[in-house]
Amino acid sequence: MYDMIGWAKDLFPIPRSLTGDGVRETFRYLQNINSEITTQAFPTGTQVFDWKIPREWKINAAWIEHVQTGQRFAQFSECNLHVLGYSLPIDTEMDRAELLPHIYTQPDQPDLIPYVTSYYKDRWGFCMAQNAKDALPEGAYRVYIDSDLFDGELLVGDALVQGETDRELMFSSYICHPSMANNELSGPVLLSALLKFVKDHFPQPKFSYRFILVPETIGSLAYMSRNLKQMQQRIECGFNLSCVGDERGFSHVQSRYADTIADVALKSALIGKDNVKTYSFLQRGSDERQYGAPGIALPICGFCRSKYGEYPEYHTDADNFDVVTQKGLEGSFEVITTIIKAFEIGLYPTTAVKGEPQLGKRGLYPTISKKGSYSAIRARMDVLAYADGSNSLFDIANYISVPLEIVLDEAELMLEHGLITVSDTATDRHPRGTGC
């Protein structure tokens, strides 16, 4: 298994934003894991659909200092969430009353530092725990933010693994948040592990694979502004990976009409998992918004453990490695790699014999018939019953309510014994019997 938790811990201190050196450093680290990742630059002011690439932001240091005592608060060097994302620079003195409106808190979580940004409107500010803000002493303060906004660039990255066909599976995650383990780093490290998995296990894959790493929203739009035509022609199935590192549950954020092969695949891969939650597209929040938007309409849904916005540590400094674990990341890895395996096995199985095959002579069915003997191999019989060429392995798992992983095991066994053939495309569903 890949050291996803180690990668995440290495990346955690880096101060990322939409743009800047933190993004560049993060890409360099991930390129050391997978050298296939390349980046594209979008200069400030570039039009990407209805948006424009913003200025680049650089942050060096920040703090609030009580003039009378010299005590410092909200120091960027202690926590990079302390500065409002994309804050303007400032170096001045003011009294407490003037300072307080520029300090952002999360009042319902008074001991946590919130993550707050202002990408598209100029302002300056700090972020603090509500209790720490309330405890600021009266008096004068020096406020200092050493930042800069200038014409620069926004980076997006991808890696393409070519298969026998141009039909693609796509995986996307984002690089734009500072030190938050689940909301930021779990997605990129899972994506990195998936890229390594495809290379390690399928050196000559049937399908092609597209791995995308972008700043959320503006990055996915920028990426698609250059690649949309090819993506619409090639992408068969895709997943936006967000908040995939905890152990609390599994979440499926459906596509706009919940009718893509990605929706069917993820539903089947989550059968039998604990605490599975399904959210409609109306509850979207990450880049599935962009990939599923009108005029784009890629066959993509969202995959999370605890969904963004639904776990208490989200967008605060408590989103750390008490939340994200190697076990949690491995659980997400197993879900997605099972889906990849299904595509590589051959997505649409067809029985190779007419009627119900005799499994006993192949050692696949008990040779003693008694009460209860059928239930032990029910999944095997049910997989064969729906293997008519029109049903994907995902469809079959959902029809028979058996985890996709078990369906794959049975399909591989049936292939070994020559009981099914597989295809990467579906046949028309066979007509119902006519009684003839």
- How would you sum up the major sheet? 8 strands, mixed
Gross geometry: elongated
Order of helices and strands: HHEEEEEEHEEHEEEHEHEEHEHEHEHHHE
Which fold does the CATH topology of the largest domain refer to?
Aminopeptidase
Low-pLDDT segments: 368-374, 431-436
Radius of gyration: 25 Å
Question: Any idea of the CATH class of the largest domain?
Answer: Alpha Beta
* CATH architecture name of the largest domain: 3-Layer(aba) Sandwich
Q: How large is the share of residues in beta strands?
A: 15-25%
> Total number of β-strand segments?
18
How many H/I helices?
12
Characteristics:
4-stranded antiparallel beta sheet; 12 helices; Glucose Oxidase, domain 1; alpha/beta; Aminopeptidase; 8-stranded mixed beta sheet
